[in-house]
Amino acid sequence: xxxxxxxxxxxxxxRYFTISEASDLCKVEAHVLRYxxxxxxxxxxxxxxxxxxxxxxxxxxxxxxxxxxxxxxGYTIKGAKQKLTHDETEKVSKQSTLSDVRSDLEAIxxxxx
Length: 113
Description:
Layout: E1 17-18, H1 19-26, H2 30-39, E2 46-48, E3 52-55, H3 57-72, H4 77-112
Antiparallel strand pairs: 1-3, 2-3
């Protein structure tokens, strides 16, 4: 994941960012962000009054990741979707494995006690 790209500004410690702020932080036009929301189900900014979008830090990081996949790594939209889905599946699998290991360790501790 692209988090420390020196060409992109650092992400301020704010809870929410407007679409123009997210656009500036990721160096992507606002209309591109709106399009990516339709294409990437993982990108879901909060919508409030008048359908205004408010992005959170994880959204900005995801936008940067999508931009890196599409613009720098040469993925197509379809390929980037598959990559993000695969990465999410892998993350869930790792969390599940860690949970299993923890349960096994707790059982061993119970036996040793």
